[in-house]
Amino acid sequence: MSKVIPTEERIEKARNLIEKAREIQPPENGGWMDFSYAAQVKDVLRQANDLIKFIPMTSGPSAEMKAEAAQLMKDIKIAEKEILHRSLA
Predict the structure, then answer these.
(1) CB–CB of 79/24 below 8 Å?
(2) How far apart are CA 31 and CA 67, in angstroms?
(3) What is the DSSP string of 24-74?
(4) Spans in the chain with pLDDT lower than 70
(5) How far apart are CA 89 and CA 85, in angstroms?
(6) Model-level pTM?
(7) Residue spans per domain, the chain
């Protein structure tokens, strides 16, 4: 059975994963069009989302924590657009 991770730690790990996704270096030739680069970024952001996706639906965390998790989920979507669609902006 897996170990239970506290809500605060989940949120912190999700933030760190978003930063990790931003730090992944795009390839010299192609950028966001490179499938392995896009897959790496999406995988890291998926991991961040998986850590926090159930926080707003559970009864344990405070309302502030739930709001923070909901905002972080929005930030993950924004980060994906910023990272993978830079040349479109």
Answers:
(1) no
(2) 33
(3) SPPPTTTGGG-HHHHHHHHHHHHHHHHHHTTGGG-SSS-HHHHHHHHHHHH
(4) 30-33, 86-89
(5) 7
(6) 0.85
(7) 7-88
